[in-house]
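Open question from group meeting: does this chain pack into something compact, or does most of it stay loose? Before anyone orders reagents, we agreed to write out a predicted structure and look at it together. Recording both the input and the output here so the notebook holds the full record.
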Amino acid sequence: MHNEGAITVITAKRLTLALAAAGAIGGAVGAIAVNHNNAVASSAAVAPATPLLASAVPAATGTPVNPGAPAPVAAGVVLPDFTALVSRNGPAVVNIRVMGSTKTAMGQQRGRVPQFDEDDPFYEFFRRFQGPQMPRGQQRDTPVFGAGSGFIISPDGVILTNAHVVRDAKEVTVKLQDRREYRAKVLGSDPKTDVAVLKIDAKNLPVVPIGKSSDLKVGEWVLAIGSPFGLESSVTAGVVSAKGRSLPDDSQVPFIQTDVAVNPGNSGGPLFNTKGEVVGINSQIYSQTGGYMGLSFAIPIDVAYRIKEQIVSTGKVQHAKLGIAIQEVNQGFADSFKLDSPEGALVSNVEKGGAADKAGIKSGDIIRKLNGQPIIASGDLPAMLSVAQPGDKVSLDVWRDGKIVRIDARLANASDKVAQDEREPAAGADQSAKLGLALRPLEPNEKRQSGIASGLVIEDAAGAALNAGVQPGDVLLSVNGRAVNSVEQVRDVVGKASKSVALLIQRGNDRIFIPVRIG
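Structure tokens returned:
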């Protein structure tokens, strides 16, 4: 899969995602649903003088305990009290209203009037009283409105929110908690991370303290403040469900997943930790209806602040690119590549002339670490790269041919163009019975039309290969990371495998690895 971004992550399952703004332009008060059909500041942090917690259960009594019943919760279990946090930081959370326009088709004339030929005697009568005529098919601008949330990060009026909240906006209005309103200027936005920076002409404004999303722990309490459905200064709380979530969209954001109730209008609002520090920007929800269903996703403030610094200093955003397409490593791939555990990011494609290609990364490599940090799920890699800059040097631990290889790469700019991929010529034909594949070499005209210079056409798939998802018409490029140009090469690699083999398949414009269990 080719994308202007640094990495394309091919996922086995797809989610139905909804941008949580009540009014990304064109959405009015409904969330924008994307259905995939398958599959900081000068303020000090809040530090309450007394514990933010209240006892959840009474002290133990002499009442006998049923041996079969679950153990009672200890008397010391406590719940957070967010009142001091909300009182301190609520005034720095703002409501954002946007106005834009969309093109709508107009009829031949304004209003509901009979249509007459110009030669008809009634034509002139109705023309006089109807008013100006509009040419048939002409379009006019129809105003659309939306709303979202944001938060002030500097006393002179710099505000962070989501890019989708102000997308296509012609007019942006910011309303403070004390009911003052300001016209805002969009300093810049970055759709790839969904971060936007606004500026209002004001001084001595309340600000939020900025924390570190990298310090968050799964299970930690967090709180959101925003304007769901236009209900300003609404507070909801929950816990961090997961970190570093990679979602099936065009972004490279390592989302913070929470169970904090986020609804249309919450987009762009802050996510606080119990210290009163902003650790994220509420951005998306998992939903099949457009409303909250128990999962919400926030942009880590570490990522958002990096984007903000670029926008404020240069007016534009640059993203780093390694130049590879990756897949999840499942148990089948782990067996095929002789890994002790199904972890890492499997490289399915390398952009010719890109950073990875220049560094020597190959299709079939499995990236296990980036700068010493382990990569468990494939989504960990783009999450780590999201905080890097073009030109940064990274060190990769790559699993290749049964051992770890250390490779250094210098990241490119995501906006840089790369040359089309080229491959060595090929030959070969015949049947590979153990896999259940009927193979033949590419014809010269097929090479020209597809742009694939080597590989074997899969004429038929049966048995293990068919069960794994291989389809007739796919082109087999490699087996267990070894490029194959003949059936003999396929047989040689398969003969040395014990449990399964990983087939690199070209299907249309996509390259994917498919594990086939043979043992």
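Observations to bring back to the group:
Confidence is low (pLDDT under 50) at residues 1-16, 20-63, 107-113, 419-432.
The first strand starts at residue 7 and ends at 10.
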